[in-house]
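Exercise: predict the fold of this chain.
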Amino acid sequence: MTSVTPHIGSDGTDLPAGTPRGTTVINDAVVAKIAGLAVREVTGVHAVGGGAARALGAIREALSSTDHSQGVSVNVTGPLVAVELSIVAEYPLPLQQVADDARTAIIDAIETLVGLEVTEVNVTINDVHLPDETDETDDTGEVPHP
């Protein structure tokens, strides 16, 4: 778990270090979930997780229990966090750009929402999703787009 002890008053001004106002504990699973939610918004990321993680995710989804941290692992050490990410990218987007955009989204989300410093985001692209591969189809036979 990660402890964050802010020294900021309710008016936004810094408080002296000797006057802590309490402790906030943020579970590592929350950090992973925030990273997972952020990466799902990135253009070019078709799915998060490797084959086994996606299969388990499909079972969870069928049971109406989505794991937003699927494919994401974090290592939190004090105020620092390292992230390991596994994704399936959309073809024909440039893979390095998809990885860079995913990395940026995760760093922004964790540093903004959690207040931890991200030291690294390692991205593994396990597969590419081809436009003619369908996961789900609507009545017209086309893949629905969000």
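Check your answer against the key: The two ends are 34 Å apart (CA to CA).
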